[in-house]
Structure formats: C-alpha cells, structure tokens
Amino acid sequence: MSITPIRPKWKGTMTDRERFNNQMHYKPVDRCFNMEFGYWNENFESWDIFRDNGITSNEQADIFFNFDRIEIVAGNCWLSPRFEEKVIEVTGKTKIVQNSNGLLAEVPNDGHDTIPHYLKSPIVTDEDWKRVKEEKMRVDNPKRIIDVEALKKQHPTDRDYPLGVYCGSMIGRVRDILTFEGLAYACFDYPDMVEDMVETCCQLVENFLDQVLGEIDFDYASGWEDICFKNGPIVTVDFFEKVVAPRYARINKKLKAHGIDIWYTDCDGDVRPILKHFLDNGINTLFPFEVNGGGHPAALLKEFGKDLRIMGGFNKMEMAKGPEAIKAYMESLVEIVERGGYIPFCDHRCPPDVSPENYIYYLDLKEEMFGMK
Questions:
Q1: Which domains does the chain have, with CATH numbers?
Q2: What are phi and psi for residue 79, nearest 5 degrees?
Q3: Which pLDDT score, from 0 to 100, does residue 268 have?
Q4: If you average pLDDT over residues 62-82, what whole number do you get?
Q5: What's the CA gap between 282 and 240, in Å, rounded?
Q6: With contact defined as beta carbons under 8 Å apart, do 326 and 362 qualify?
Q7: Cβ neighbours of residue 12 under 8 Å, at least 6 residues apart?
Q8: Collapsing DSSP states into helix, strand and coil, what is residue 365?
Q9: In contact, 344 and 333? CB cutoff 8 Å
Q10: For the residues of 342-357, what is the DSSP string, one character each?
Q11: What is the mean pLDDT of residues 94-107?
C-alpha cells in the first residue's frame, strides 16, 4: 500500500542519520530529530485521520506524518519456535487463549486493548524450564542464523538514516513467560532457574551480535525490559545488580568494541532504582520515559548530566488536555532539547483519549518550537 504523507517533512540541512548521531552526542544539529513511539491499536479505528486515510499500523503512521526515519535490525533472540496461538475456550464476553509465549490468558472477545488476565504459565518449576529450554531456546537452532548479506543490501553503509542493533531482553521476556507473580515467586523458589533463563537470553543476544557486529555499521543499540511499574522494578534491586547487570556488561563490551556507544532500552514505569546499574553497564538512554513513573525528564538529566540521554518523556496525560496544557509542557522541554541528548515524543504509545485535533496541534507546535527556524 502506498502511503501519501499528510504533512511535509521538517526542513533540514543534515541527514536523519547525521542529526540523530549529533543530537545524541551533544553536538550541533540543524533541528531536533523528529520521531514518535506510536499509537494504541484503538487509535487506528477511532481516529478519523487514520480511518479516512487507510492507516492501520505504526509503520504506516510514521510515513503518514513524515517523521525522520530510524530503523532497527533484530535477530531471533527468544522462543523459537513460538508456542501455537489458539483459542482454548469462549466464555461470555471473554475468551481463554494460549499466546505465543505459551501462557493461558483471559482476554476480551471484542479485541480492545487491555492487559490480559494470565491464568497459567508453561514454566512453573525448573523441570518445566529445562523442557522449554531444550525445545525452544537452543542457541544452535539454525533458524537463528542471520542472512547478513541481505541485511547489508537492505541497510547500506551510505544510508541517510540511523540504524540500531537490537539487544533483546535479559529479564523482561522472562517476566513475560513466568508472569509478574510467577517471576516474583521464582526468584525465591527457583533462583538458579531464573538466573539460567537470564543467562540463556544473554547467550541468544550474543549469538546474534556475533553475526552482525563488524558486518553492518550500526549507529546505536536498543533493547526492551518492561520490568518496572509506578513503584519501581518488579524484581529486587539486589537481584537486578547481581543477575541482570553482569549480562548487560557482556553485551556492552561487544557493542563498544564496534564503536556503539548509544544504547537505549524500552522500559516503562519508574526505572530510577535500577538506573545506576543501567548506566554502569552500558545502557545510557531511557525510552520512552513515562513521566508519571519517573517525573519530568529534566530532573534526571540534571542529576546524571551527560552520562544519561532520554528519548520520549512528553506527558501523554497533558497531551489529552488540549492546546494550553500541551504548550505548557512543550515549553518545559526547551532547555533539555537545546542541551542535547534528548529527543521529545509521547511517553508511550499515544492513547485514544488524545483527540486527533490535539495530536495535530502537538505535532505542529513541536515543529514550530524545535524545527529549523
């Protein structure tokens, strides 16, 4: 499907790649890098601007709004093969499904976005883990081999956009398959099992990195660790320091050996209790930085100086209130945008309670304030 942009790309004198690298390294830029994290699935049905133009995905929306281009190369670093997705039972307004992580979950029949009610994990004991590891987490699985030459053709060295290498998840995916409560119990009941799960995740990422680093010229690294909520991490800080952080250090050593010194991880909630361990082991950028979990982004950037970068941090709740609130919050970001090491966008997927009119106002104002004059 061909997407016709609804607005012109922001004016600039640099390539998207030059702009991103300079902005994240506190060097001069022609203007702010222009990107967004995306939208709830409901937005593609409820926003007339999406419905009327046939926009059904975040990738299409990026083209539709003519954002700066940013790409990521990912490997096969999790369950392979995945569990079969299937409906187990339909009960009134909900249904019981098995998802690709093997979890049984209760979800709404109408398909609206919500956090599923998980009923059962495929892994409860260490014997369960040994079985799943052997069947679906083998590092030597041939399906984990990357077609490097195809990637090199897809992302040439002389490209004009920033390209990231995905460094997976050390504990977030473990949480996904064990469930929140399951991980909390397993850390005490089966600590060796949990550490082996983290180690296996690390080995899968290392296997991928060993195939692509040195073959493709990456600009940054990315990851995903949704392990925090409004009151901090769902594992203890001691566990995170002793079990998770050393695996980051191993990955960081590989990244640094190939000149990659910008590494963000996507983690919701309040990351402040574990931020030191991120920074000490290579993760120096927070994304999408939920304001209601971690406060205004300026506070952390002031506390940690240029050791820290942030991508995101525009309060989605203020975005929903309308032009006056949007402008006030945008003005609060001026100093840190000018400082560098900060790229402003919605602090998670934009929710449907933000109207299309308010969102367009937000985009227009962002260009007015942070675009090229």
A1: 16-79+123-370 (3.20.20.210), 84-121 (no CATH)
A2: -55, 130
A3: 86
A4: 98
A5: 14
A6: yes
A7: 19, 30, 31, 372
A8: helix
A9: yes
A10: EE--BSSSBPTTS-HH
A11: 94
Report the amino acid identity of residue 369: M
Cβ-in-10-Å burial (0-12, 13-18, 19+) of 167 comes to buried
User: Is residue 251 a contact partner of residue 202, using CB atoms and an 8 Å limit?
Assistant: yes
pTM of the full predicted structure? Answer: 0.95
Of 20-34, 72-86, 202-216, 223-237, minimum mean pLDDT range: 223-237
Q: Collapse the DSSP code of 372 into the 3-class scheme (helix H, G, I; strand E, B; otherwise coil) and give the result.
A: coil
In eight-state DSSP terms, residue 241 is: I
Q: For the residues 191-210, what does the mean pLDDT come to?
A: 98
C-alpha 168, offset from chain centre: 10
The CA-based angle 288-278-140, given to 5 degrees, is 95
Q: Is 370 helix (H, G, I), strand (E, B) or coil?
A: helix
> For position 113, what pLDDT does the model report?
67
Q: How far apart, in whole angstroms, are the C-alpha atoms of residue 104 and residue 84? A: 11
Tokens representing 149 are 């030459």
Cβ proximity of 361 and 326 under 8 Å: yes
Residue 292 has pLDDT above 90, yes or no: no
CA distance 269 to 213: 31
11 by Cβ neighbours in 10 Å (0-12 / 13-18 / 19+) ranks as exposed
336's enclosing H/E stretch is helix 334-339
CA end-to-end span of the chain: 34
Specify the pLDDT at position 92: 82
Six-digit token string for 141:
């699985």
CB atoms within 10 A of CB 339: 14
Spatial separation of the C-alpha atoms in residues 88 and 98, rounded to whole Å: 7
pLDDT score, position 110: 77
The H or E element that residue 249 is part of is: helix 245-257
Identity of the residue numbered 125:
T
